[in-house]
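Worked Example 4.2. Consider the chain below.
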Amino acid sequence: MTRIKIKQLLQSEGTGQDVTVKGWVRSFRNNQFISLNDGSTNNNLQVVVDLNLIPEDIAKRITTGASIAAHGALVASQGKGQKVEVQAKSIEILGDCDPEKYPLQLKNKPSLEYLREIAHLRFRTNTFGAVFRVRHTLAYAIHKFFNDKGFLYLHTPVITASDAEGAGEMFRVTTLDAKNPPLNENGAVDFKQDFFGRAANLTVSGQLEGELGAMAFSDVYTFGPTFRAENSNTPRHLAEFWMIEPEMAFFDLNDNMALAEEMLKYVIGYALEHNREDIEFLTQRLLDEEKQKPQNERSELDLMQKLNFCLENAFAKITYTEAIDILKESPNYKKKKFQYPVEWGIDLQSEHERYLVEKHFKKPVVLTDYPKDIKAFYMRQNDDGKTVRAMDILFPGIGEIIGGSQREERLEKLEGRMKEMHIPTEEMYWYLDTRRFGSCPHAGFGLGFERLVLFVTGMTNIRDVIPFPRTPNNCEF
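Applying the procedure from the previous section yields the following structure tokens:
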């Protein structure tokens, strides 16, 4: 018979029919009750075994972690916690699992740190089952949101010769002999002999190429992997992560802010609708974790409340300059509770961003018009000569979740800014051509996908929301 997924069976009303289920054994109690899970839901299906019907050699192999197929009648459950169960007529062992060696046992509650070391098996736990089902839903919701709004999904290159951010933190891509690379007459590595005939690296952003698409299709978005060779061992940084970067022709900063707010509310709402069971589990997990903390360190809102908080509140909109004034007037500043200084021109730290969201406005905040000296070359310059049309969206518990701007569409202004920042205009001729041939106002933003997953799942370490994290000194699996 065709296999039926456990989630579908647990939601079914009909009983009496014969069914086949396949999955992994979570537990086998009293030589009678198998808790079976196939990853479609955190909830297990109870399979009741009659040892008179199951050969002894098969019964001995029903161990935690083993993969089995069970065939039998779907009946109303006599126990608590589930409506239906399967009374097995036959059990087939698909894959044995040695219980002495299997690292995921019910009696142990492995820490998240330990599970990172066995990331190839952590998907089988309830926590990571919930996290990665939510991740899938968020990815789907992003594509659905942009598709329904008429955007074109543009695949931008993973290997590129440009550094979009100008930060230089890039991974080199080369086929040259690392021990004996060819050198030019100046003694430098001769990349003309490399595969691409020039220096190449893994992309840090698809934005610049996205802008090229927007100048023909009006509305495009990218959703792909990006890479930063940044030696940051923090719970918020990865060397490989996924970015969503929409670019819209004929948009100004206000249009950009409105779209970003609409998108965030849409995808969070979509996850709440389609993964409520997983989010309720993660909410309870966090509440249990919070009980270990002192009262003053506990969150004011639980996970479910935090997500609804973002859906129900219009985002506050203020300028960077206004934000600095608010921070300087805050009790935290006056009582010297901020770890980092507050003055005009600084790049705001997470503690400043969270104060604005969680303490002052008590709603998500959009900050605009940052000092040009702390922002990228492509942002549209304001008339004051000091600030640019940038925007950041700040969320509770996480700080910045989206960064974007109106792009500089004026050729002279853009070339001048690039020269100021020592970005070679000759190499970027293709980017500048969009300003030479039919330029128009346009805007876009970037959303780090893992930051979004972190927020929606309530996890506290970004390494726990990507299947196989890439970080300094770690490239397992």
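DSSP finds 14 helices and 16 strands in the chain. The two ends are 35 Å apart (CA to CA). Compare this with Example 4.1 before moving on.
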